[in-house]
TrEMBL record:
Residues 1-237 form the DOCKER domain. This is DOC10 protein. It comes from Mohoua ochrocephala. The keyword Ribonucleoprotein does not apply. InterPro entries: DOCK, DOCK_C_lobe_C, DOCKER_dom, DOCKER_Lobe_B, DOCKER_Lobe_C. Belongs to the DOCK family. Keywords: Guanine-nucleotide releasing factor. It comes from the Eukaryota. It holds the Pfam family DHR-2_Lobe_B. One of its GO terms (molecular function) is guanyl-nucleotide exchange factor activity. One of its GO terms (biological process) is dendritic spine morphogenesis.
C-alpha cells in the first residue's frame, strides 16, 4: 500500500476488499485501485498426494485458489439450498516463494458450483481433511479435535447435517440430478467412516483429562449417525476401530469432484500481481 501511496498520493489509492469480479468501467479513472483477497495454494488431487509435508504444501507453488459465495437472488449468502460459489484459480508467472514479493498473474480459471455441488465440494473437503489429519506421522491433536468438533458437534441448522437434510431427504432429493444425489450420499458414507476413524485416533492419543470430552464427542457422533440413517433411509452404523478387532480393515476411496471449468484470459485489474 505504501508503495502505491508514495507513487500516486495517499488520497488517490483505494482498496477493494472483496473477491467479486471488478469491471474496470465501473472504477473512477482518477484513482488507483488495489484488489486484495485471501488465496490458498491449489493442487490437483495427484499433486496433493505427493506433497507430504507442510513445507511441501507451501513452497514451489504457482497456482492459488479463492472462492466467492453468491446466490441467484443476488445476495452473497443464503440457505444451503440456495448457496452457490465461484471458484477462481490463479496461475502466476513464477513459483512462490520468489525473490520478489509480488508476482504477475498470467491466467485465471473460474468454475461456478450450484448448491448441491457446493455441498458435494464442502463434504469432500471434510472427508479429505479428516483422513489427512489421521494419517499424519505426528497427529496434530488440536487441529484434529477442532475438525471433529466441527463435524459431529454443530448447531442443528448448520454443518454437515444441514447439507444432508437439504439435499438427501426424500422430498428434497427429487429436485436434484440423481447422479449428484448418489454422489453426495457416497460422500456422507465416507464422512461417517472418517469421523469414526478420527474418534478412534483421538481416543488412542488423549490423556485422562479428556476422557469426558471424548465420551461427549462419541455421543454426538452416534446421534449424527442415527439422524443420517433416517435422512438417507439406510443404516449408517458406528464401526469400532479395526485395531481393536484384528482382521477388519478400513478402506477410504477418495472423492473426485466435477471439473468442468472454463478458462478465460487474465483480467487487467489495477494491481494484477498476486
Amino acid at each position: 500500500m505504501k508503495l502505491y501511496a508514495d507513487k500516486f498520493g495517499i488520497d488517490n489509492v483505494k482498496i477493494i476488499q472483496d473477491s467479486n469480479k471488478v469491471n474496470p468501467k465501473d472504477l473512477d479513472p482518477k484513482y488507483a485501485y488495489i484488489q486484495v483477497t485471501y488465496v490458498t495454494p491449489f493442487f490437483e488431487e495427484k499433486e496433493a498426494e505427493d506433497r507430504k509435508t507442510d513445507f511441501e504444501m507451501h513452497h514451489n507453488i504457482n497456482r492459488f485458489v479463492f472462492e466467492t459465495p453468491f446466490t441467484l437472488s443476488g445476495k452473497k449468502h443464503g440457505g444451503v439450498e440456495e448457496q452457490c460459489k465461484r471458484r477462481t484459480i490463479l496461475t502466476t508467472s513464477h513459483l512462490f516463494p520468489y525473490v520478489k514479493k509480488r508476482i504477475q498473474v498470467i491466467s485465471q480459471t473460474s468454475t461456478e458450483l450450484n448448491p448441491i455441488e457446493v455441498a458435494i465440494d464442502e463434504m469432500s473437503k471434510k472427508v479429505s481433511e479428516l483422513n489427512q489429519l489421521c494419517t499424519m506421522e505426528e497427529v496434530d491433536m488440536i487441529r484434529l479435535q477442532l475438525k471433529l468438533q466441527g463435524s459431529v458437534s454443530v448447531k442443528v441448522n448448520a454443518g454437515p447435517m444441514a447439507y444432508a437434510r437439504a439435499f438427501l431427504e426424500e422430498t428434497n432429493a427429487k429436485r436434484y440430478p440423481d447422479n449428484q444425489v448418489k454422489l453426495l450420499k457416497e460422500i456422507f458414507r465416507q464422512f461417517a467412516e472418517a469421523c469414526g476413524h478420527a474418534l478412534d485416533v483421538n481416543e488412542r492419543l488423549i490423556k485422562e483429562d479428556q476422557f469426558e470430552y471424548q465420551g461427549e464427542m462419541k455421543s454426538h457422533y452416534k446421534d449424527m449417525l442415527s439422524e443420517l440413517s433416517v435422512v438417507m433411509n439406510e443404516q449408517i452404523a458406528y464401526k469400532e476401530d479395526s485395531a481393536k478387532h484384528p482382521g477388519m480393515e478400513r478402506t477410504y476411496s477418495r472423492v473426485i469432484h466435477r471439473a468442468s471449468s472454463s478458462v478465460s484470459a487474465a483480467p487487467t485489474p489495477a494491481n494484477p500481481d498476486a
